[in-house]
Amino acid sequence: MPVGLFRVCLLVITAIVNHPLFFPKENGTVPENTEEIIQKMKEREESLRLEQLRLEQEIADQEASQKALEKAAEVVEESKEGTVRWDMWTALSMVIFLLIELWRQDFQEGNWQDIGGEEDDMAVLGKAFKGVAFPDKAVLASFYEKRILGTTGDMARMREMVEGFADDLLEALRSVCNRDADMEVEDCMGVGSMYENWRVRKPFVCDLIVPFAPPEPYCFRCQTWCSGDSFPPDEQGYGTIKVCRADEDATGCICDKTKLGEDMLCLLHSQVSSTRPSSEMEDLLCFKNTQYLDADQVMKWFQIAVTKAWNRISHKYEFDLSFSLLDSPGALKIKFKSGKSIAFNLTPVVQYENSDVYFISHFPRSSLAADIPSSTHWFLTFAVYERRFIQLVSKTLPANACHVSCLQILSFLHGKQCSLTGPSGLTNYHLKTVLLHLLQARPSQDWAPEKLEARLQDMLKFLEKCLHEKKLYHFFIGNGKVPAELGFPIIFQRAEPLNLFRPFVLRRDMYRKTVDTFHEMLRNMSALINEYTVHIPLAHTNGIRKESL
Q1: Are 486 and 440 within 8 A, CB to CB?
Q2: Domain containing 423: what range?
Q3: Domain presence at residue 357
Q4: I want to staple 172 with a disulfide (CB 3.0 to 4.6 A). Which of 119, 309, 354, 398 is the partner?
Q5: Residue at 237 is within a domain
Q6: Which InterPro entries match (predicted)?
Q7: DSSP notation for 398-454
């Protein structure tokens, strides 16, 4: 019971103490503080709502920009796909075009070997032949007999005289040279039209080449444009000649390319032999500060050596010897007391490896010839192989074949026309190249003497086609059909064909002049031939035509 009363009293006391009105002053601000808190809570709620709205707007903007980027990416992807499809079609079209062009060129190059299938196919001649009166067989035969055939004996006598004098001159040259320091000169060889028996226009000029080699212990290492290294188009047909020691590797010893320490020595080369003074290389006719043979230095050396040799033997002869051309090292002229003269070329050359291809120091210049890249670039001549090829083919042709006659007549006509209208880009070498291609393309029986007229027409048609296309390929370079009997170097057979008419592409004025001269020669052909032909009665001419039919 007392415990219960105590609990009741404690509860009443606690209620009285915690009543709000019991301490009015201390608890009078409670209502005011509550309203302020509520107001702050409302303001906070409003700010949170505004922040939520701002965030929602930002999210919406981001979603819109993301959608715009995705749409733009889709457009770009579609455009890329369209571009790829267009590029693929463009590339495919270009490939088809290139294949067609390559097929056309191969077709043309394959067909140029089959020129003139019939003797009377004048219908295939180009516009240049329309209205041209081509000489018949009787007129051509009379012209050849009267104007050209008589020069054969003169050429033989001149060759014999020049070769004998050249051998004597070279023997004297060897005697005046220092065998330990000067170049070693070998025997000369005859090349060109005089030794292929088709030279027709005077003055007759014999072309002799003289191989030479460096003194021991040096040797020549030759490099051509088709040996692997890249050569620009204007250097095709050229090569360089490096003067090296015979015991030196072609690529050079590593001691020349690596700085060895002061306490290290090369076991192959001593310190003296590894460094060559520039004066020593200049004595070996090299370009300044290089090991490459200089054609200009060779020209000076050869002219001085020939002059010394002539001074030694001049008392044996009753004529004078002089240089006829300043820009050619061996253009010599013999002057007799009677006033007559004989010209011949004695040109130094370097043999390419163990073949009969030669680097020639100075090639006879023509209006079509391009400038030599530098004096260390040497032109390659295949004249020895050209002479051998003509001799080889001649053995398979009928007796008195007309191949040489065709070349002689064409050379005469072109030379006569150039004397009237001025020089053109065509040279006798171009005409000979045409003949070489036709000799390889046509069977032997097509060169019978009675087919002179048809073969001459073939040469003119071939030449007209080449001029039209500005393409006349070198006969040996890139020709895989060269007879194996010639022993021609395989490196040149596998090379890219060399276009002898490439300068026509770069020099349009010269091309126009050459084409005009060719057309003028065709129009004047009958007049030029008749000028040197005896009169042939009409009845005789008709009889020959009936026999040919």
Answers
A1: no
A2: 121-247+282-532
A3: yes
A4: 309
A5: yes
A6: ITPRIP-like, Mab-21_HhH/H2TH-like, MAB21L/cGLR
A7: PTT-SHHHHHHHHHHHHHHHHHHH---S--HHHHHHHHHHHHHHS-GGGG-GGGHHH
Rounded Cα–Cα distance for residues 396 and 149 (Å)? 22
User: For 40-82, what is the HEC assignment?
Assistant: HHHHHHHHHHHHHHHHHHHHHHHHHHHHHHHHHHHHHHHHHHH
First to last CA, the chain: 170
Residues forming a β-bridge with 172? none
Residue with tokens 């079609």: 89
Sole residue written with tokens 């009078």: 28
Rounded CA gap, 328 and 362, in Å?
A: 6
Structural domains of the chain, count: 1
Count CB-CB contacts under 10 A for residue 423: 15
Euclidean distance between CA atoms 244 and 319, whole angstroms: 41
Q: CA–CA separation, 544 vs 549, rounded Å?
A: 9
Q: How far apart are CA 384 and CA 211, in angstroms?
A: 13
447 φψ region: left (φ > 0), alpha (ψ -120 to 50), beta (else)? alpha
The domain that holds 199 is classified in CATH as 3.30.460.90
